[in-house]
Amino acid sequence: MKIEFYNCPEPEAINQHTLPESPAFLSAELNYGVIEKIASQYEQYENLLVIGHGGSVSSFYGIYHALKEQSKKQAYVLSTIDPDYILELKKFLNPENTLVIAVSKSGETVTQIEALLQFQDFPLLFITGVVGPLAELGTKLNAQAVLHLPISGRFTGLTEVAMVPAALCGFDIRAMHEAAQKMYAQYNSENDATRAASIMHQLELQGIVDVFMPIYDSHLYGMSNLIIQLCHESFGKDGKGQTYFAHHAPESQHHTNQRFFGGRKNIAGWFMSSDKPLQDLTTKVPEAAEDITLKDDTLAVLDNIPLSVALQAELHGTVEAAKLKNIPVFNQCLTQRTASEVGALIAFWQLYAVYSSVLRGVNPFDQPEVETSKKISFDKRLQEKGLL
């Protein structure tokens, strides 16, 4: 993985004494034996349904979509109580072909429990704390339980929270975890994440408060929820922090490039891609169509150009245009979507969130502004039952 910066200030060193000492996610160890036993125990199920919210599911969602071609199972993430969607899932998921995995650290997320109860007659595996409503429910429903470590959900991507379903899919969790550990080992030294965090903080102080994230690898787009959560929930506090918004690219070039290049000058670009796909296709132009006019040339110019080359041309064309317009640009690229690269990418964004929080003087591990709406929503349920 590599990252380049254009039209950006020079990164400044982060005072190491201001960093949280040994965050729990850095030292979390995986019990490979337990995880591999679970993967073997449930190998007969062709589908996984992972039920949770936010950090409980966002890391696995990103991992699954990044490595989907390698998966032994079809996996679905349920993070809504939309009845239409749940009924749609139930049309093809049943207790004979699907393992349901419920994930919640506190076990108190109301919508997660409501969604889970729609599948209570399925085989169940719970990843949660020792105590809490979900843990108690698991006991009542005879569900197997895996301990959710006391770590904020958005930082659990390389723990059992995401590694258990990843192992069930047949992904190389050892490679993912080992690559992340190499990133974690740089926590107290200058690295790509410290440089990126420093530059983006300086840009925020200059009025750059929006970060446009076009993702030029369809499979990597699944990482966008995790990235956005890590940024917004970790350092969007005390009136500080930027807004990160991701789009599929090059589709985004046909709408959001107008905002990026022509709108308010309060925006930076963070481009994400892979150097090469796992497979490739080549454009073949029929001989009879070669003389059709295309821009200042003909269709013949497209003949025998691999789509991977064309995709890179779209990426670099937009990056170069941003450089010419003096727009700050980050260009982050994976060598290829492998388990190791995906593990390193998750670790990068976890570290970036911590460094970014420290630079803004906020706690990276709490989320004080998300509880009010939850209380109001629960009170609405009490009103429906005539209890309030």
Which terms summarize this structure?
388 residues; five-stranded parallel sheet; five-stranded mixed sheet; 14 helices; alpha/beta
What does this structure look like?
The chain is globular, with a radius of gyration of 23 Å. It has a 5-stranded mixed beta sheet, with helices on both faces. Strands 3-2-4-5-6 form a 5-stranded parallel beta sheet, with helices on both faces. Helix content is 41%, strand content 16%. It has 388 residues and is of the alpha/beta class. Helix 2 (32-41) crosses helix 7, helix 3 packs antiparallel against helix 10 and helix 10 (224-235) runs parallel beside helix 13 (339-360).
Summarize the structure.
Helices cover 41% and strands 16% of the residues.
Distance between the termini: 54 Å
Shape: globular
**Helix run count:** 14
Assembly type of the chains comes to single chain
> What's the main sheet like?
5 strands, mixed
- Radius of gyration from the alpha-carbon trace, in angstroms: 23 Å
Mean pLDDT: 94
Produce the secondary structure layout.
Blueprint: E1 2-6, H1 24-27, H2 32-41, E2 47-51, H3 55-66, E3 74-78, H4 83-90, E4 98-104, H5 110-117, E5 124-128, H6 133-140, E6 144-147, H7 160-168, H8 173-184, H9 192-205, E7 210-215, H10 224-235, E8 243-248, H11 256-262, E9 267-274, E10 293-294, E11 297-298, H12 307-324, E12 329-334, H13 339-360, H14 371-384
Parallel strand pairs: 2-3, 2-4, 4-5, 5-6, 7-8, 7-9, 9-12
Antiparallel strand pairs: 1-12, 10-11
Helix pairs in contact: 2-7, 3-7, 3-10, 8-13, 9-13, 10-13
